[in-house]
Design brief:
The chain has 137 residues and is α+β, with helices and mostly antiparallel strands. It has a single domain, classed as 2,3-Dihydroxybiphenyl 1,2-Dioxygenase, domain 1. 19% of the residues lie in helices and 39% in strands. It has an eight-stranded mixed beta sheet with strand order 2-3-4-1-5-8-7-6. A hairpin with a 2-residue loop joins strand 2 and strand 3. The model has no long low-confidence stretch (mean pLDDT 89).
Amino acid sequence: MNRHITRLSHVGIQTTDLGRSLAWYTHVLGLDEAFRLVRDGKTWIVYLHAAGQSFIELFAPRPGMDAPPHAHFSLQVADIEAAVTDLRKRLPPESSRHDEIMTGTDGSRLYNFFDPDGHRIEFQELRPESRQARALA
């Protein structure tokens, strides 16, 4: 068991039609919209509150995309520096494409790495000013 992981933070899902997917997740599953992230004046991601402190991210289609690629998942950590330092002890070089911890558009701190099939996994530390923390408050 990894002592740094506190919960599953969110699941990111690429959509082919954001409106259709948003309607399905809100009407069929009954999830509530928490907030939206906008890029270049257009909705880029819609965050849905799943339960407790968990979210689902619906990504708008990308230009020229025929079918959605695989999704990613995010694991919340209490201390991202400690979690990443510990992870790097076991992480093969091909699993790390960008070695830095970054601050996301949503205000959380993130570190991305990849499994052997190329699926992106994200460590996420929520900060009090992050959009998720504000949505939960």
